[in-house]
Amino acid sequence: MITPDPGSFRDPTGHVGSVDGRIIRLLSDRGAGDARTAIGTPSVTAATERGDVVASAWIDPSSIGASAGGALEHPRLPFIAYPYEWTFAMLQDAALLTLRLLRETAVDGVSLKDATPYNVQFHGARPVFIDVGSFEPAAASDPWFGRQQFLQMFLYPLMLQAYAGAAFQPWLRGSLEGITAPELDGVLGGTRLTQRRRGRLVHVKANAAAARRLRTRTEGVEAETKRSGLTRELLLTQWRALERLVGRLEWKEARSVWSDYGARGHYADAELAAKERFVGTVAASRQRALVYDLGANDGRFSRIAAEHAAYVVAADADRLVVDRLYRELRSQGEQRIQPLTIDLADPSPGLGWGGVERSSFADRARPDLVLYLAVVHHLAIGRNVPVALQLDQLASLKAEVVFEFPTEDDPKVRELLLAKRTGLFDTYRVESTDAAVAERFDVRTREVLDGGTRVLYHLSPRS
Ligand SMILES: C[S@@+](CC[C@H](N)C(=O)[O-])C[C@H]1O[C@@H](n2cnc3c(N)ncnc32)[C@H](O)[C@@H]1O
Hints:
single chain; alpha/beta; Rossmann fold; 3 domains; seven-stranded mixed beta sheet; five-stranded antiparallel beta sheet; 17 helices; binds S-adenosylmethionine
């Protein structure tokens, strides 16, 4: 029997689920007919061969005990992430992929039912369009049904960050429908409307004004489009213009708290080499399917882990650092490391319908190994999350852990303590951490780095 994916129910013509770990899309008669037509076209075939669209194979629904108009099997992606966990460049690339697919498939009379970033996933640093059920044959006079969704979920979040310097992630996490035109218009109200920002006039101001007027629909959207004379050629022109606009948007952040950390100058060369050796030895001890590098920064240790693992999720709260990591991995064609923006003190909760449509970061996957390197003190002292609670969280993942604890004498810890009332963090001690670790894990190896203020642990979960 198929286990339905709780995030796949909005399309009346089909939904996705899993059977023994296989990813299956069940389609209604109409959905199967549409998919057969669309998937068979030269443009969708070419996009699939290029890897822009996830692969599909028709299977007999009865072979998995289902009754449906048709069934497709897709390869399972190593990790699912959501737009509010992406960076600026990731959302931009997903937007450009969506527009390119619209443009390319239009020549074969195909369109996309919707235009949401949830139709895109990242395989490493490469966007892949996964909602094959969204392709449908389109009449020459059809409107672009996904237009408003594209604006709210792609263009406006990108404009918010590019024009106002405000992060889009909290907004997309706050509303799964994205940012509305009046909301963005309100935020951008004070910013200068230069010629370069014409897109704002066309896509934000006009739509915001329209959205503020109550409108009672008396005519179907298809009839209205036919009457207005909107043609495929006009839509192609619109998509091309949007591609140019989206492609030109830039987030001009040059520095963040962690953007210059890459050199790791506070480690002596020998210490850094010892830390790399420690992580490398654990990583090489066996091949793993999924590794989490939490507080990954520039991904230095993610890369070491990726040498011996099928997939690594490199998560960090610093959006600029993660954006740079994404761009670098993208330029290297890296598909084994997936960057993610996650604040470990406030990770993504379950969202959407029933609170499970978009799963929480904690429930998303089961890693085999977790790297938790030089991040504990930031959460303990910077965010007041006690070390024991952090270890509880790590233990709940039931994975091996490489844990680096900078002791109370470490210069970086002392620096963090300077911002706090004296004596408040007296419990931040290596002895209490040793005890808390031993209560929750089997300690396989414990090594103190040469400077004497950094302790590395290789931990196994208790069954
Ligand atoms: C000292 S660096 C360590 C980087 C890397 N793990 C290493 O060992 O070289 C700490 C990293 O933790 C990240 N960080 C700090 N607080 C965080 C939080 N609440 N959630 C996620 N990442 C966080 C910072 O952005 C930074 O990149």
